From TrEMBL:
SMART domains: S_TKc
GO molecular function annotation: ATP binding; protein serine/threonine kinase activity
Protein name, UniProt field: non-specific serine/threonine protein kinase
UniProt keyword Transferase present: yes
Keywords from the named record: ATP-binding, Kinase, Nucleotide-binding, Serine/threonine-protein kinase, Transferase
SUPFAM superfamilies found in the cross-reference section: Protein kinase-like (PK-like)
PANTHER family named in the record: SERINE/THREONINE-PROTEIN KINASE NEK (PTHR43671), SERINE_THREONINE-PROTEIN KINASE NEK2 (PTHR43671:SF13)
The keyword Kinase is assigned to this record: yes
Provenance organism: Pseudomonas marincola
Pfam family, one: Pkinase
UniProt xrefs under InterPro entries: Kinase-like_dom_sf (IPR011009), NEK_Ser/Thr_kinase (IPR050660), Prot_kinase_dom (IPR000719), Ser/Thr_kinase_AS (IPR008271)
Residues covered by the Protein kinase domain: 59-325
Length: 337
């Protein structure tokens, strides 16, 4: 994606140029609302006002940290905690962007993100603290742990040829452990990509469950967003079956995480950064080769997770974890072949 995105409302397509685009990540999530009977038209929606300096009378905004496909993320100080002597009152605030805030579904989507993330307590998943509504500007926002460090897309800009095995292995194991935990607790991430993973003080943090979904009876009371009404994906990490209208699955998360790991291993996207439905049409699966820095023993499991046909994508997060874990950092030379 470039810096311009499209929001497709029932009435047509609205191109949106993001503020701070120069600093915006390459792979923004594409959002499109498709027509439904009870679709809220932008004209009927509440008019959204500017974001005040202090949100909900408590969180003083300090600076912009990032701009995503749908939200703005700020560093803020929790004035209440500060008043009671909290030595570290800083939080990150994720608040709906102006255009999206006008849509009734947007707050429900943000609340779902909050609920999914709160459900998951894992050292490699960013923590959320609260969901709030800012009364003045009428926008939902989440407070969450403030991370500092690089997202993997920025890391890849600094390391265009990928990472050595010792670093790749550490990141892969933490990321796969987080994903296996989320899947075991009935939550699908739905939007795994380099800009949704942070290296925070050398620890991997998976975040942005905004397109997540629960399964297996987990969080049943949560408003569920129908993908028929609300399509969203990041084209080069979304599994091809999502373009065909199938729902999220552990397999679609596996496809995305495998693309990220491949990219970390050699600096290149496995399917030349084209959307996976096009990769399938062009039969790019045939051209996949093991990245040189990836030990031979890891390749079969990673290759299985990268399959464009979901029926052949038999690897799960634990299989892939085991494959990466089986090759130690020392004495690795024998396994590169
Ligand atoms: N807790 C946090 N601490 C520090 N920075 C953060 C935090 N959360 C998000 N960011 C920064 O803001 C960016 C956008 O955040 P996030 O991915 O949650 O928004 P988004 O609107 O869901 O994005 P998209 O849907 O395009 O992936 C991140 O890539 C990251 O740089
Ligand atoms: Mg994101």
């Amino acid at each position: 994606m470039n810096d311009e995105q499209s929001l497709t409302f029932a009435g047509g397509e609205v191109p949106v140029t993001l503020a701070g685009a120069a600093d915006a990540p390459r792979d923004l999530t594409y959002f499109g609302f498709v027509p439904a009977h009870d679709q809220v038209q932008p004209s009927q929606a509440q008019t959204v006002k500017e974001i005040p300096r202090v949100l909900a009378g408590r969180y003083r905004i300090e600076r912009l940290l990032g701009v995503g496909g749908m939200n703005l993320v700020y560093k803020a100080r929790d004035l209440l905690h500060e008043q009671y002597g909290d030595p570290d009152p800083s939080v990150a605030i994720k608040i709906l962007g102006e255009e999206i805030a006008e849509c009734a579904d947007a707050s429900a989507l943000l609340f779902s993100e909050f609920a999914f993330t709160r459900h998951l307590q894992h050292p490699n998943i960013a923590r959320v603290y609260s969901f709030n509504m800012e009364p003045e500007c009428q926008r939902g926002f989440i407070t969450q742990e403030l991370m500092s460090g690089l997202t993997l897309d920025k890391l890849l800009c600094e390391r265009p040829d990928g990472l050595p095995w010792s670093e790749l292995r550490d990141i892969a194991l933490e990321l796969l452990d987080a994903l296996a935990y989320a899947h075991a607790h009935g939550v699908l991430h739905g939007d795994i990509k380099p800009s949704n993973v942070m290296l925070d003080n050398y620890r991997v943090k998976l975040f942005d469950f905004g397109l997540g979904q629960s399964f297996g009876g987990v969080l049943p009371g949560l408003a569920r967003l129908s993908r028929e009404r609300f399509n969203a994906w990041t084209p080069s990490y979304a599994a091809p079956e999502l373009f065909d209208g199938f729902g999220l699955s552990t397999g679609s998360d596996m496809f995305a995480v495998a693309c990220v790991l491949f990219e970390l291993a050699c600096g290149k996207h496995p399917y030349l950064r084209v959307s996976s439905d096009l990769a399938r049409d062009l039969n790019l699966g045939r051209t996949l080769r093991r990245p040189r820095k990836l030990p031979r023993r890891c390749w079969p499991a990673l290759k299985r997770a990268l399959r464009l046909n979901p029926n052949c994508r038999t690897s799960n997060a634990l299989h892939l974890y085991d494959a990466f874990n089986a090759v130690p950092v020392r004495g690795v030379s024998a396994s590169f072949g």
